[in-house]
Structure formats: structure tokens, C-alpha cells
TrEMBL record, chain A:
<feature type="transmembrane region" description="Helical">
    <location>
        <begin position="64"/>
        <end position="90"/>
    </location>
</feature>
<keyword id="KW-0813">Transport</keyword>
<feature type="transmembrane region" description="Helical">
    <location>
        <begin position="234"/>
        <end position="255"/>
    </location>
</feature>
<feature type="transmembrane region" description="Helical">
    <location>
        <begin position="136"/>
        <end position="155"/>
    </location>
</feature>
<keyword id="KW-1133">Transmembrane helix</keyword>
<feature type="domain" description="ABC transmembrane type-1">
    <location>
        <begin position="65"/>
        <end position="255"/>
    </location>
</feature>
<feature type="transmembrane region" description="Helical">
    <location>
        <begin position="7"/>
        <end position="30"/>
    </location>
</feature>
<keyword id="KW-0812">Transmembrane</keyword>
<feature type="transmembrane region" description="Helical">
    <location>
        <begin position="102"/>
        <end position="124"/>
    </location>
</feature>
UniProtKB/TrEMBL annotation, chain B:
<comment type="similarity">
    <text>Belongs to the bacterial solute-binding protein 1 family.</text>
</comment>
<keyword id="KW-0813">Transport</keyword>
<dbReference type="Pfam" id="PF01547">
    <property type="entry name" value="SBP_bac_1"/>
</dbReference>
<dbReference type="GO" id="GO:0030313">
    <property type="term" value="C:cell envelope"/>
</dbReference>
<dbReference type="InterPro" id="IPR006059">
    <property type="entry name" value="SBP"/>
</dbReference>
<keyword id="KW-0732">Signal</keyword>
<protein>
    <submittedName>
        <fullName>Sugar ABC transporter substrate-binding protein</fullName>
    </submittedName>
</protein>
<dbReference type="InterPro" id="IPR050490">
    <property type="entry name" value="Bact_solute-bd_prot1"/>
</dbReference>
Length: 269, 449, 310
């Protein structure tokens, strides 16, 4: 029993540390500028105001939320499919150059994106994709090394003989992937979906560099414009961030249902 | 899909592999000739309709510029203008990427500190306006080898914001003229002492005063070159650079004495918050002023929109203190730069020239956004802020006296971070002003090209 | 699902696994083709260009000029760069062990039947879900030496907190702390998914054999988490070696260059000093270091035995 209490105490303390900074975001989003100056960040302003949220929602911000949602949906769809394909091949198919190619994928994560951004931007110019949706999506929609690495590891951890019977039944690789392996990968797919959605939603530097118009503006960039060279609209930035977080929490709760023990795998002896 | 060999990269007599790499690079990198696409490629409706891109970083001013551009488009039916708003922190990274790729906007905002880098690399077009009509410090900030490379847009100047409520509570009147000297005499320090109170109600210099428990500070002295030490240096007869595009010289005795004064306000006289709370990049002097913890706060007038509305106290504006060599304040101008490789150079020039005329500058002034660079329009700005119960006329008075620009040299952008780091140590009391100035000048002159 | 499981391979069929090269041939390439296109054109090519650019003097706004190994000679004598590499290594050591262990512990806690487990999981991931630029501002408030939440809380228990971001001894730990805060819950997700993949029977069997819970952790859980652990450490190290955002938002490399990590130096060199060729050289150095560290992990994890479930 005391063990149980200790467990909950540890969880509660950890949760508090986790959430506390974000609590400051929420409190600040609900303060007037005057309350911001007169109260410490960790105390609420009284009475709380929804003016900041209303101001953000009343301007162009909802449009940028839609842009971001569209970008996120497309990137997630593309990445889930192509990442899974590639990871499957790297983990469970044998072909020439497999290891070299895989580590080449991983190696592309080892050079800072701030510097590769310049050549990438020039490539996009050559492809005539600057300031277009295609340019915004192209580098990431075909799957990312990070996601492929993640899924490869999960595919590898599945028992090695799974495909065999299906092969004997004459199933092709695609059938095996869809019918045999993927049902066992729900936790991994759930995780991949979560990280893809959230990292797309929060992506900042590439959208900022490749596009500059309002038609493709995403929320992170819109929030950043509230921080001027000289002053910061804290309460508006925090309100924007609060609006941005809400759908992500919903997405997380939806997908984390899948991070549970796969029935099939447990049934396996 | 990828142009490999049409660049003519300048790489003779190298091994084939390197030449291949060079060709690849050249194709990718050299923005020679017009590019296939870009922000500025006009896709406007009519056959000869041109779309220009105008880029800025201030979301409040964007509102004003929407009006300005509407007026411009009305007067020029053949031209559409798209306004692009970018976050300030990434504005220069994006602009750099755009210049490399040849996709920079046709007209964009330029600051004095970035100007040398861009003008010496041929990124900016010379502009044809009459320099005599604009504030001369702004004109000087965008002049290279005697030619003007940007239409003067506006200026911001450092003035002394103060909290009238704190003055009333302390029973202190703002003197007609604040003065300072390096040895600590003058009305500035006197006034700041009276306004500085610790939790026990004691002032600095009184027995029992606890500098660790100060409730309100009389003054904000901190490591901020534009609104702080550069002004002390200039009003003590020191110099920042020997000439435009010259060398840094702010380690001479007069400059060092001025730096010492700024640091003393914090560490010796205790009338300013400790550097641990104010050093950049996290310094929160503005927040402390807004929270009523600081009585006098030198700030650029561009900060007013972030401070004055919804302030919990009455905001006053006073002239910056006079130093031993009189009053010299930083006046920071902005310019409308025209991209040298714009696809529509004539239209871009037309837009920039228009932005320098009375109509748009008056719109921006009357909207309270900034002091216009065009002479004679300041009243609109003053009137706007009068309606918000802030008397900003001291800013105007200062602009008519001695003003100086930020150092105009190549390499300042790279130097800035180092400079701030070195001077952070100085304000913390870990480096003496002489050591800090010597180190900073050496580091700065090493970045000159 | 269960019906499908029933059709899954028998023990006999699994016994032959790996003997035949199922799936060798062209259709494997079809599976990787889309990602290969993306990786080659948008990731590998820019990376190669950057590495090639390390042989050039290029001030970004003017034309590049080939200078051979000049940049590398300059690097050899560049004390600032090596200092930055040292700072980066310090940062990695401060945050990686801590955030990995915490994430694993958290995942084990939240892998149990606990009331409100989903609620807790969500809370722990919020630090990673929130808009990063906003969090930089928030942490600066928290670290304020006088009015900040952290030192205010420490004062309640009688501790005078340090000046955090103004103190050369504490700034790097402070930045690392933010990283741990941000990434612990995130890494927990991977461990959770990995733990879910471990058959419960293995634990039960070990328990029947009289293994203590510590033994079960070291002998069953950890070995079976090997693929996940490999992913987490490799990607976290790659990320930590390239830390930039928090430093940019919180310290600008100060005080006294105590937080000037290599990637911050690279950004400064490229975009503030307009010295892209040398920034590319520094990137090549960073690449080499990360590459070697990754290689070491491949060796380390490759040697460790994994339980083959078949």
C-alpha cells in the first residue's frame, strides 16, 4: 500500500514538473497586459480574460491553423505510408545494399538543418517550388529517416518467422506487410502517428524559409511574428500557443489508445 | 530536373571530381541571371500587371502598410503589392537565403547594422530621392561611398520613459534637465537615489540600506548598446567607430569612463537592478518597468506600443540625461531597400520612391507607428500619442539635437553576440570596463573586412 | 484479430526462418523507392553540397571560391571551435543519460495498471507538444534569479538558488535541464511502445522461475527493449549534438561562452558572420563526431545478445 502511495506521489510530482511551465502559458494567455505586469507568472490574473484568445481567433490566425492542419494531414498521410514501406523493406526484406542505404538515410540526420537548408532552398528554386505547397511538403512527405528508423526497429523486434507461413500460402510482400505485420505494429504505428502529427504541426524553420506568403503561413511562424525586434506580445503569443496545443492534445489522446499491447502478439507462444 | 552544367563555375584546372562538385555547386548556388521563380514572379491578373513583394517584420506596422499599399495600387493600376510579414528573429536568415537564391523581395526593410553587409555585396540598388528632405542621421546610416542605398523610412530615438506614479509616491519632481558625470555628480544619480527604495523603505547611501532587497529601482542601467552605453559613450566625448565603415575605438579613456558610469549605477550606487536580471538575451528590464519596479527607463520610442497601452501607471517621457559633452542620443533609422536583382526594377523603384513621399509617411506617422524619416511630419505622431495621454515631444526635441547612428561597419552582425557576451561580464562586475572595452574592440576589429 | 492470429506461423514453419531469402529482389526496392527519392533529392544532396562547400570560401552574398583544405587548416587552429565541441560534449553528457533513464523509468511506471494512466501519459508528453518558441520565453521567466519560479520555490525550502543563466557554472546545466524536461515524456512514448511488444508470458515465466523484479528487469525487459533502446540513444545523441533552439532562446552562447555549443557556433558563422564555407567545415566536424558516436553505438548494441523469440 505504501508502495502504491509512493508511486502516485512520484507520478504526481513528475506530472507537476512536466506541466508547470505550460501552466504558465495558460495563465498568461488569460491575463490582460496589466495583470501580466502585476502578478507573478504562476498566479492567475483575476478576473481571467478571454480577450487574447478572442483577438487571436478574430484575426487571420484561424486561417493559419487551417493551413497548418492541411500541411499536417498531408505530411502524416504520406509519412505513415512511405515510412512504413521503407522500414518494412529495411527490416524484413533482403536486398543488395540494404545496410549501407539504411545508414546513409540515418547519416542525413547528422548535419545541422540550418546549413543544409541553404542548398535545399536552392534545389527547390531549381524545381520551381519556392513559395508553393509542393515545396513545403516535398522534403518530408515521402518519409523521413527518423520515422523509418523508428519503424525499422519495431519491425525487427517481431519474431523472425512470421512471414514464413504466409509465403508458403503464396502471399506477396505487400500482403504480408498489411495482413501479418501491421496488425502487430499498432503500438509503433500509434507512436509514429503521434510524432508525425505533432512534429509537423510544430515545424517552423522549413515553412519559414520555403514560403513567405499568407497562403501557406503556419501557426508557429504566425506566433513568432508576435515577437518583434523590440518588444514581445507575451499574452498574444501564449494565447496562440494555447490554441495550437488544444488539437494536439486531442490527437495524442486519440492515437495513444493504440499504444497498448497487441492482442495478437500476446496470443503468440 | 536539376541544372548541372550551365553555370560556368569558376573552377579551372582542378581534378575532374572537384570540377564535378564545383559544377554541381555552381548550378545550385550562383544566383546568376534571372531565376526561374521567386516571391517576386508576377502572377497578377492582367497581361501587363506586375506583382511586387514588400517585406517587413512588424505586425503592428503591417496594418498601416496595408492602407499605404492600397493607396499606391490605386495610383498605379498596373502594380499589385503583396506584403510579407516575417518574424524579426528569422527575417535576416530568410533574407539571406533569398538573396543566395535570387528570390529576395523587391522592396524590404533594412536596418543600419545589417546594411553594410548587404550593400557591400551588391544586394541593394541605389535609390534616387533627395536626401536633404530626410533626417540626416537616417540618410547617413544608409549611405555607402557617397551614394544612398535605401529610401529613408522612419526613425526611432532613445528617450527616457518614466513612471509618474512612482515619482509622485516618492515625492520627487522630474528635474528640468537630468545630468550625469562619470564621478557620480549630477541630477540623474540624485533623482535615481531618491526613487530607489528597499523593503525597509531605505534609500541607497542611507545606513541599513540592503541592495539585495530593493523594491523599486530609480533607474534602469543594463547591457543594451542601443539605448544605454553607446549613449553614455557619445555624451562623454567618446567614439564608437572612427568613421563609417571604419574601426571600433570605444576603448579610449572617455569611453571607458562612460562605461564605468553605466556599471556603477548598478554595482556601486545600486540604483539599477543587478545584471543577473537584466543581461541579454533574457534580460527583462521592459517587464520590470511595466511592473512598476523601475522608475526611469531609457527606451526607444518604438517600444511605446508595448508599454503605454494598458499601463498600470502614467507613462512620462523625458529628455535623455546630459553628459559632460552634452546630450547625444542614438537615432536608429530604417530604410526601404530595393533589391538589386528585382525582376521589376522600375516598378520596385517606383514603390520605394513612393514610400518616401509625404502621403505614406504621414499615414504611418498619424497612426502612431513611427516617426517618419521625412522632415516636418513628426506632429502626426505626437498627436497620436497625445490622444493616448503620452507626451512624446521630448523625442522630437532630441532628434533636433545631437544624434548618432549605430556603428556602420561590416561584420557588426557577427560581432554583436560577442560584444553582448563581453559586456554582460562587465555589467556583472567580472570584467573591468577597460578590460571589457579592450576585449570588445579587439574582437570587433577582427571581424572587419 | 484473434482469428488472424490463429493463422499465424507454426513453430515448425518458424524454425526455417532466415534460411531462405524471402523477398530478395526488385520489389524490396519498390518499397523503399518513394523514400529513396525524397532522401536523395532533399536530404542527401543538400548534405553532400554542404560537405563539398567546406572546401570553399563562400560569404553567402557573393560567389563561392574554391580554397581546398584551407578551412580545415583554420579549424585545426581554431580554439573557439574546439571549445564549442567541448561544450557540446558536456551538454550531451548532462542530458542524455538523465533523460534516457527517466524516460525508461516513467515508461515502466506507466506500463502498469494504474488509475488514470492515459491522463498521466498525456501530461508527460505536453512539454514536447507545446510550441517551442513560447517555451523558451517561459523558461527564461522560470530561471530568473530573483523573481523566477525556480528560485522562489528553492527559497521556500531554504536554498538560495544560483543565478542560473548568468552563471557560467549553471547555464549549461540549466539548458540541459530544459532538454530533459522537454524530451523525457517524448522518449517515454518509444519505451512504452517497446514495452507493449514484450510478451507478458516471458515475465510470468521468469517470475515462476523465482527471478526477482530486478533480475527480470535486467535479464528480460532490458534485453528485449534493445531495439527501442538503440533507436532512442542513437536519435537522441544525434539530436543533442545539434542542440540549438534552447541555447538561442536562453543564453546566446553565454555567459563567457559557457553554452556556446557547436551548432550555435555554426549558425553564427553562417548567418551572422556570413562565412558559409567555414560553417560547412564546422558542420563536417560535427558530422564526423556524430558519425563516430553512432558507429560506436552500432558496435555496442550489435554485440549484445537479443532474445530471439522464435
Amino acid at each position: 500500500m505504501t508502495k502504491r502511495i509512493l508511486l502516485y506521489a512520484a507520478l504526481a510530482a513528475g506530472a507537476l514538473i512536466s506541466v508547470f511551465p505550460y501552466l504558465l502559458v495558460v495563465l498568461t494567455a488569460l491575463k490582460t497586459q496589466a495583470q501580466l505586469s502585476s502578478t507573478p507568472p504562476w498566479l492567475p490574473g483575476w478576473p481571467p480574460t478571454t480577450d487574447n484568445l478572442a483577438k487571436m481567433l478574430g484575426g487571420d490566425f484561424p486561417r493559419y491553423v487551417l493551413n497548418t492542419a492541411l500541411m499536417t494531414a498531408l505530411l502524416t498521410a504520406g509519412q505513415l505510408v512511405f515510412t512504413t514501406f521503407a522500414a518494412y523493406a529495411f527490416a524484413r526484406l533482403r536486398f543488395k545494399g540494404r545496410e549501407i542505404l539504411f545508414w546513409l538515410y540515418v547519416a542525413t540526420m547528422m548535419v545541422p538543418s540550418a546549413v543544409t537548408m541553404i542548398p535545399l532552398f536552392l534545389i527547390m528554386r531549381e524545381l520551381d517550388l519556392v513559395n508553393t505547397w509542393y515545396g513545403l511538403l516535398a522534403p518530408y512527405i515521402l518519409g523521413t529517416p527518423y520515422g523509418i528508423f523508428l519503424m525499422r526497429q519495431f519491425f525487427k523486434s517481431l519474431p523472425s518467422g512470421l512471414e514464413e507461413a504466409a509465403r508458403i500460402d503464396g502471399a506477396g510482400s505487400m500482403t504480408i506487410l498489411l495482413r501479418v505485420l501491421l496488425p502487430l505494429c499498432r503500438p509503433a504505428l500509434g507512436t509514429l502517428a503521434i510524432i508525425t502529427v505533432i512534429s509537423s504541426w510544430n515545424s517552423f524553420l522549413w515553412p519559414l524559409i520555403i514560403t513567405s506568403g499568407d497562403d501557406t503561413r503556419v501557426i508557429t511562424v504566425a506566433i513568432a511574428t508576435l515577437k518583434d525586434g523590440i518588444g514581445v506580445d507575451y499574452h498574444l503569443m501564449m494565447a496562440g500557443s494555447l490554441i495550437a496545443l488544444a488539437p494536439m492534445v486531442a490527437v495524442f489522446i486519440f492515437f495513444q489508445k493504440h499504444i497498448v499491447r497487441s492482442v495478437v502478439l500476446t496470443g503468440l507462444k | 530536373m536539376f541544372r548541372l552544367l550551365d553555370s560556368g563555375a569558376p573552377l579551372p584546372s582542378l581534378s575532374p571530381r572537384i570540377r564535378w562538385a564545383g559544377a554541381l555547386l555552381g548550378a545550385a548556388l550562383l544566383a546568376t541571371g534571372p531565376t526561374l521563380t521567386g516571391c517576386s514572379s508576377g502572377e497578377g491578373g492582367g497581361a501587363d500587371k506586375v506583382t511586387l513583394t514588400y517585406r517587413l517584420w512588424d505586425d503592428q506596422q503591417k496594418v498601416g502598410y496595408e492602407k499605404v499599399m492600397a493607396a499606391f495600387e490605386k495610383a498605379n493600376p498596373g502594380i499589385d503589392v503583396t506584403i510579407e510579414l516575417l518574424p524579426y528573429d528569422q527575417y535576416w536568415t530568410k533574407l539571406t537565403a533569398d538573396v543566395v537564391a535570387g528570390t529576395a523581395p523587391d522592396v524590404f526593410w533594412m536596418t543600419p547594422t545589417q546594411f553594410p553587409e548587404f550593400v557591400t555585396k551588391g544586394v541593394l540598388s541605389q535609390v534616387q530621392v533627395d536626401p536633404a528632405k530626410y533626417h540626416q542621421t537616417v540618410v547617413g546610416s544608409f549611405t555607402h561611398e557617397g551614394k544612398l542605398y535605401g529610401v529613408p523610412k522612419d526613425w526611432g530615438i532613445v528617450g527616457l520613459l518614466y513612471n509618474k506614479d512612482l515619482f509622485k509616491q516618492a515625492g520627487v519632481e522630474m528635474p528640468d534637465k537630468l545630468t550625469w558625470t562619470a564621478d557620480g555628480t549630477g541630477t540623474l544619480l540624485d533623482t535615481a537615489r531618491k526613487l530607489t527604495v528597499d523593503e525597509a523603505g531605505k534609500h541607497p547611501g542611507e545606513p541599513g540600506f540592503d541592495p539585495g532587497k530593493v523594491k523599486t529601482y530609480g533607474f534602469a542601467s543594463w547591457n543594451h548598446y542601443q539605448t544605454q552605453w553607446m549613449n553614455w559613450v557619445s555624451s562623454n566625448g567618446g567614439k564608437l567607430v572612427d568613421k563609417p565603415f571604419g574601426k571600433y575605438v570605444f576603448n579610449d579613456p572617455a569611453s571607458v569612463r562612460a562605461l564605468q558610469f553605466g556599471v556603477d549605477l548598478v554595482n556601486k550606487h545600486h540604483v539599477s537592478p543587478p545584471a543577473t536580471q537584466t543581461n541579454p538575451p533574457t534580460g527583462k528590464v521592459t517587464d520590470m518597468f511595466k511592473a512598476g519596479q523601475i522608475a526611469m527607463f531609457p527606451a526607444n520610442n518604438a517600444l511605446l506600443p508595448f508599454v503605454a497601452p494598458e499601463a498600470t501607471f502614467e507613462v512620462g517621457v523625458a529628455l535623455m540625461p546630459e553628459g559632460p559633452s552634452g546630450r547625444a542620443v542614438n537615432l536608429n533609422g530604417l530604410a526601404e531597400a530595393v533589391y538589386a536583382k528585382s525582376e521589376h526594377p522600375q516598378e520596385a523603384m517606383k514603390l520605394a520612391a513612393y514610400l518616401g513621399t509625404e502621403e505614406p509617411q504621414k499615414i504611418m506617422a498619424d497612426g502612431g507607428y513611427a516617426f517618419p524619416a521625412l522632415s516636418g511630419l513628426s506632429q502626426g505622431y505626437v498627436d497620436y500619442w497625445k490622444s493616448k495621454k503620452v507626451d512624446v515631444s521630448p523625442f522630437v526635441e532630441e532628434s533636433e539635437g545631437t544624434t548618432f547612428p549605430l556603428p556602420i561597419t561590416t561584420g557588426f552582425t557577427g560581432f554583436e553576440t560577442k560584444l553582448n557576451q563581453i559586456f554582460n561580464e562587465m555589467y556583472l562586475g567580472k570584467l573591468s570596463p577597460q578590460e571589457a572595452a579592450d576585449q570588445a574592440v579587439a574582437a570587433g576589429n577582427a571581424t572587419l573586412q | 484479430m484473434i482469428a488472424r492470429a490463429a493463422r499465424l506461423p507454426t513453430r515448425a514453419a518458424r524454425g526455417r526462418a532466415g534460411g531462405k531469402r524471402w523477398g530478395s529482389g526488385w520489389h524490396a526496392y519498390l518499397f523503399i523507392a518513394p523514400s529513396l527519392l525524397g532522401v536523395l533529392a532533399f536530404l542527401l544532396l543538400p548534405m553532400v553540397i554542404v560537405l563539398v562547400l567546406s572546401l570553399f570560401d563562400w560569404e553567402l552574398l557573393s560567389a563561392p571560391e574554391f580554397v581546398g583544405l584551407d578551412n580545415y587548416r583554420r579549424l585545426a587552429a581554431d580554439g573557439e571551435a574546439w571549445h564549442s565541441l567541448g561544450v557540446t560534449a558536456g551538454y550531451v553528457l548532462l542530458c542524455i543519460p538523465l533523460q534516457t533513464v527517466l524516460a525508461l523509468a516513467l515508461a515502466m511506471l506507466l506500463n502498469q495498471r494504474i488509475r488514470g494512466v492515459r491522463f498521466y501519459r498525456s501530461l508527460f508528453v505536453i512539454p514536447w507538444m507545446a510550441t517551442p518558441i513560447v517555451l523558451g520565453l517561459i523558461w527564461n521567466w522560470i530561471f530568473d534569479p530573483r523573481d523566477g519560479a525556480l528560485n522562489t520555490a528553492l527559497a521556500l525550502v531554504g536554498i538560495t538558488g544560483p543565478d542560473w543563466l548568468s552563471d557560467a557554472d549553471w547555464a549549461l546545466p540549466a539548458v540541459a535541464l530544459v532538454s530533459v524536461w522537454q524530451h523525457t515524456g517524448y522518449n517515454m512514448l518509444f519505451f512504452l511502445a517497446g514495452l507493449q511488444g514484450i510478451p507478458k508470458e516471458l515475465h510470468d515465466a521468469a517470475a515462476t522461475d523465482g527471478a526477482t523484479s530486478a533480475q527480470r528487469f535486467w535479464r528480460v525487459t532490458l534485453p528485449l527493449l534493445n531495439p527501442t533502446m538503440f533507436f532512442v540513444t542513437v536519435t537522441n545523441l544525434i539530436g543533442a549534438f545539434q542542440v540549438f533552439d534552447t541555447v538561442y532562446a536562453m543564453t546566446d552562447g553565454g555567459p563567457s561562452r559557457s553554452t556556446e555549443v557547436l551548432n550555435f557556433r555554426i549558425f553564427q558563422t553562417a548567418f551572422k558572420e556570413f562565412d558559409f564555407g567555414y560553417a560547412a567545415t564546422l558542420s563536417a566536424l560535427l558530422f564526423a563526431v556524430i558519425f563516430l558516436v553512432t558507429l560506436a553505438q552500432v558496435r555496442f548494441f550489435g554485440k549484445r545478445t537479443t532474445y530471439d523469440l522464435s
